[in-house]
Amino acid sequence: MQNVQDLSKILDHALSHLASRIRLSIQTLVHPKHQHVRGFARIPSSFRKKPAMQIIESSSVAGVIKRSFDRPGRNWIKHIVFPDFQRPYCWSLNDIQKILDDIDELRYSPDEERYREEDEYYLGAICIMPLRDSDSPEHAHDMALLDGQQRLTSLMVLARVLYERAMRSKTDVLRSYGANIAWIMGRNLVWKRAFLYQEPATLQHIRQIYFALDREYRQIEADAALDDAQNAGALSFYEETLLRDLRRFRYILLSGRLAVNVLQSLKEAEQYFQGENNRGLPMSLLDILKAYHMRFETAPDRQTEIRRIWSAFNESPPSESDREMLDDEASKAAAARLAQRKYAVEAHVIPALLMRCDIDPWPESANSPQNADLLKGIIGTHRRDRIVDGKLSASSNQHLFDLLEPVQTGIGFFRMLDQYRRIDEALDELEQRAFNPASGLKLNNDQKLILRLALIAWTDRFAPRTAFNSSASSHALAAALAADAEFRTFARHFARFLNRLRNADKQIPGAFDRLDKAALLRCLRYWNARTNLIFLPHRSATPAACKRSLLQATTPEAMAPYIDDTNRSQRYRLAYDMEAALEASAADTEQNTTDGAFDHE
């Protein structure tokens, strides 16, 4: 643990050179006696008679910080230790700010125009187990934190900044709040020494986050000091901000709830985490979005509509072995259709919805849970008193959506998902039964995906209105597109453009011998919605204008900067010229056939 002690001295030395109001003692973050803690050992006698695993179903955040877990009697844990084998602390300032913002959104009641202090806020679960070192009786009643480090560490950093700023204030109400949250967390400031850290990267990041958070308040304080228009006796903007955050944090301490799993041995820890892994497979992007958007809808009719939309493609399909056991062909076909629909949503619809955010369209990229925030939509302000709230309210019953528009929250998200699922299903039916724009071409899977996204975008913009409403079936839309000459022309031109990018064989020239994903997206100008060729329909007034724009954007001259290689550009031109010659020949043949038909008449 020598590194911890050295880091403590380094941090104290660095802090001594800062302004006196920005001091942070590492002793509040790393207990000096923690250098004796070497690892897990046998269970202390005080725990031997306890059941194998305890579950404290609900403790306030303050109860966890005080190590009493809201149970009567004196604290039965002296320190909570953050083992060095854990992942280092890595939360950002934005993560901490999001906790505070979420608190406001959840507890504010627009109808009552007040914050509900009585509502509880669930912060998840933490997991602890006894930690003892035979050489150090000081740590005989310490507990190791196995799960929950990021949340608890963030809250403790926030506590330090808020408490220190409140107690330095000359305003009575701020000092009163500071003293109150300190009392809630434990008398005599014992909370400052409750958590012990030893991982060097964690210590360094704690220091960085502390300074970054304090710097935010310091900047607000400086800006407020420049405002000469404040009323005498009124709180400054800085003081109002600090008071708001003190109130938020007090609410977290008292109403934030944590479940606490108390394990008794390393073996139980292994079993616990194995069970968590078996039960808690990572949530898919769709699962995350469903859970998020469902919480906005409480009306029974809307919940029924959501269930209908969701069950159309995302009810758990039977496994392949289960499908083999189904007793009739209709059931097997229904199960296969359900599986295909879910695949289509993940492979085509989600990438289509994320194109405006410049997310790579490949399913493995688009369906990353990290993209969830991009599809959560705009919810407006929690007080519902801004212009954006009126605009969002006016569009809440919208049934036709646009790929370039932000996602709506609640039922709007599910309706949008359903709209583009039906478009994709119609294109699939069209390709299989009536018109395949890639027929006779040698497109690879990446090119086929891009073609599908381009056709989704065209349909999104120019599909016949009669076949593009919330009640129209995908079959009706497929029939309308099959009869639409402008759709067929655009689709064929886009497919040929993609075909010119790849040198499939000696008979069919193309720009790239090996067309990788990055080169394909570069040729599409993909990473900017204002230039992305897939979004040409959304930058065009009519289908005819869209076709003209596509032809202009895919000439050899227009493509040269994106192909960026002389030999490849020459091969692209060769493919382009061969295509033009074939089209001219086909036109002559068609003209001769037409002339012959008139002569016969």
Topology:
Elements: H1 2-15, E1 54-60, H2 61-65, E2 80-82, H3 93-107, E3 108-109, E4 114-115, E5 121-131, E6 142-147, H4 149-168, H5 172-185, E7 195-197, H6 200-225, H7 237-255, E8 256-262, H8 266-279, H9 285-294, H10 300-311, H11 320-325, H12 329-354, H13 363-366, H14 387-394, H15 411-433, H16 445-462, H17 474-482, H18 485-500, H19 517-523, H20 543-553, H21 556-563, H22 566-600
Parallel strand pairs: 2-6, 2-7, 5-8
Antiparallel strand pairs: 1-8, 3-4, 5-6
| Portion in beta strands | 5-15%
Q: Rough shape? A: elongated
Strand order of the largest sheet: 1-8-5-6-2-7
> How many strands, which pairing sense, and closed or not: the largest β-sheet?
6 strands, mixed
Span between termini: 100 Å
Mean pLDDT: 79
- Spans where pLDDT lies below 50 across 5 or more residues: 1-51, 277-281, 593-601
Q: What is the radius of gyration computed over CA atoms, rounded to a whole number of angstroms?
A: 32 Å
Count up the domains: 2
**Approximate helicity band:** 40-55%
Count of helices? 22
- Elements, N to C (H/E): HEHEHEEEEHHEHHEHHHHHHHHHHHHHHH
